Amino acid sequence: MEHHNIKPAKPRILLAVSGSVAAIKFEILCRCFLEWAEIRAVATKSSLHFIDRRTLPSNVPIYTDEDEWTSWKMIGDEVLHIELRKWADIMVIAPLSANTLAKIAGGLCDNLLTCVVRAWDYRKPIYVAPAMNTCMWNNPFTKHHLEVIRRFGFRFLSVTDPITRTPACGDHGNGIMLEPHVLFSINERSGLQSGRPVEQKTKSTKQKTRTAEQKIRAGLQSGRPERSAERQTRAAVRKIRAAGQVCRAADQSSISERQRRSAERKTKATDQSGRPKLQGKSIERQTRASVQVCIAEDQRGRAGLQSARPDL
Predict the structure, then answer these.
(1) Where do Basic and acidic residues bias regions lie (predicted)?
(2) Would you state the torsion angle of the CA atoms of residues 252, 254, 258, 260, taken in this order, to the nearest 10 degrees?
(3) CATH number at residue 190
(4) Catalytic residue among 30, 32, 81, 145
């Protein structure tokens, strides 16, 4: 097996197939993905009843449960399901049978496919395409199992349910796997066409975030994240509120400063005896007032003397 640390020219897709009649479409699916990705395949024992290995593309190696045991001879040898987990950028299980779904939801790992899933790095995408009989699809167990794997981050290759049609068993209803050309649209969802492994993208996330923050702080238009009108409005409101708070704080600070200066002036204008110090025009005004008081008292005194003098 090639070393998993070598950077691929194309994204690495691990295609897995389980024991459903829809496995007859696996050859077409492999050829579709080969147009843009490097492919390796994993097949369960029951799926081999529906696959003709001779019709698969020659450049798509297919691994089975037997390969898991025959590739390991002694301690130190590579473990196949671990190496496949390291090699792949994305995993696709199509079709996903009811039996394999139940195993994955329950955490079982009794074959190569379920061992890869149990060892999977869930920072990397894993897609499933359910395919089963209509009665099995409508069973409460199926709904529960789908909810379990959804919580673990599994992504479904159908918007709601598998398509409604008459399957091989003859029961008309849900449970049919999507057509290969529809599943092929996964390349538009995964974003792996550039050929960069998902792990490398994850490692560079922090650096990209820091760069974006620096651009925003520098006021560069190219670094601003795209926002909807609602987000922009909310951001503007927050900025206005923050500016108002700053203004109010500045006003309070200005008032406090004026009060402090006024108090200092009053303190300087007061002598040690507690009497205000009079300087300049203040002294002149007080002198005039004192003279006027004296004149008024003198006039009142004269008026009193005249009223008290007897008539002659």
Answers:
(1) 224-233, 257-269
(2) 70
(3) 3.40.50.1950
(4) 81
